[in-house]
Amino acid sequence: MSSLTGPLRGLIATAGALALLAACSERPSAQIAPAASQAPAAAVSAPAKAPIGAVGEAPAGFEVLETVTPAGRTRFFVEIADNDAERERGLMFRKSLAPDRGMLFDFKTPREVAFWMRNTLIPLDIIYIQADGTVLSIARNAMPLSESPIPSGGPTLGVLELAGGRSAEIGLMPGDRIEHRIFKRD
Q1: 127 or 20, which is more confident?
Q2: What CATH number corresponds to the domain at position 114?
Q3: Which of 19, 32, 122, 161 has its CA 20 to 30 A from that of 142?
Q4: Domains in the chain: how many in total?
């Protein structure tokens, strides 16, 4: 390209930049489609801000879990840790966690619990959940490899671990709801 003259080189650079911008503006395939009651995309001036979540059927070894916030619902595919060995190992030694994946710890009966990040190589959001599915508390971006206890702050039936920062991305707060078969609503 060194033999091209100045104006032609500038034109080619501009065309390349426009092509890159066009490619980046496509909607991600994993994004949840807007509800039928929303206006069609052509009538909306800004792109929809639907949270990106799991799409389709849960793969083998995973179950579907949904978070419910004022911003909407987000689906995750979660592994279940429902015995002492699985709860003890959790997400230790993992080098990554996809944004639509997580692990749900089922304690079978509500109790106060505390987690730590021993041998956990990635930051996690640790979400403590009451028996009715209400989020009790959230430890955001827990520090990898820390052995400091992170207490629930009250009786907890389940704990959801997501990739660090994910709960903030979807707007999850204490008082919001988690829907999964282990949580019973009155």
Answers
A1: 127
A2: 2.60.120.1140
A3: 32
A4: 1
